[in-house]
């Protein structure tokens, strides 16, 4: 029974690392980067299940969130955040993958790799099988 508990702990630890590393499984052209060195990167696992905190200043030419976050669209490589329907700027919520790519999440519903396709979960990201598989690959 102790062996099974160790496996559960290892799987839980792997998922926690994957969620912490959740910032970019794109095409591999970006350099690996320490998420702590990038202030626009969120590294806590809890932040992936909550809506990103709106920033007070809206950068000039910031895109509307609904323009960026729709299933099947392409997530721009230069994505830093977007303006939500209240007019608030929502900063990028991203984690670095072991490949050096960045996996980005939005509104506990959408995810994608910078420069890649946007996917939409049918349930919360924590419960979505495709998203969880992506985070495992990201951390591998």
Short account of what is shown:
The chain is α+β, with helices and mostly antiparallel strands and 140 residues long. The protein has helices at residues 2-20, 65-68, 129-139; strands spanning 54-55, 81-83, 89-91, 93-96, 102-106, 110-113, 118-120.
List the helices and strands and how they pair.
Blueprint: H1 2-20, E1 54-55, H2 65-68, E2 81-83, E3 89-91, E4 93-96, E5 102-106, E6 110-113, E7 118-120, H3 129-139
Antiparallel strand pairs: 1-3, 2-3, 4-5, 5-6, 6-7
Helix pairs in contact: 1-3
Overview of the molecule:
The chain has 140 residues and is an alpha+beta fold. The chain has one domain (2-139). The protein is built from 3 helices and 7 strands; from the N terminus they run H-E-H-E-E-E-E-E-E-H. Strands 4-5-6-7 form a 4-stranded antiparallel sheet, with helices on one face. The two termini are 27 Å apart.
- Please trace the helix and strand order, writing H or E for each element: HEHEEEEEEH
Uncertain runs are: 1-50
Q: What is the CA-atom radius of gyration, in angstroms?
A: 15 Å
Distance from N terminus to C terminus (CA atoms, Å) equals: 27 Å
Structural class: alpha+beta
Give the total of beta strands.
7
Major sheet size, sense and barrel closure: 4 strands, antiparallel
Average the pLDDT over all residues and give the rounded result. 73
Overall, the morphology is: globular
Report strand order across the widest sheet.
4-5-6-7
Number of helical segments? 3
Which descriptors apply to this entry?
single chain; 140 residues; alpha+beta; 4-stranded antiparallel β-sheet; 3-stranded antiparallel β-sheet; 3 helices; globular; disordered N terminus
């Amino acid at each position: 029974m102790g062996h099974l508990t160790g496996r559960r702990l290892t799987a839980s630890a792997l998922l926690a690392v994957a969620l912490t590393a959740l910032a970019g499984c794109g095409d591999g052209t970006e350099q690996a980067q320490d998420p702590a060195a990038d202030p626009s990167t969120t590294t806590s696992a809890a932040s992936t299940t909550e809506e990103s905190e709106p920033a007070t200043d809206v950068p000039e030419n910031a895109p509307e969130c609904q323009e960026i976050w729709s299933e099947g669209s392409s997530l721009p490589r230069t994505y830093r955040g977007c303006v939500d329907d209240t007019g608030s700027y929502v900063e990028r919520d991203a984690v670095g993958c072991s490949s050096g790519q960045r996996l980005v999440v939005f509104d506990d519903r959408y995810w994608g790799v910078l420069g890649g396709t946007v996917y939409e979960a049918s349930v919360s990201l924590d419960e979505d099988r495709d998203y969880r598989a992506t985070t495992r690959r990201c951390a591998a």
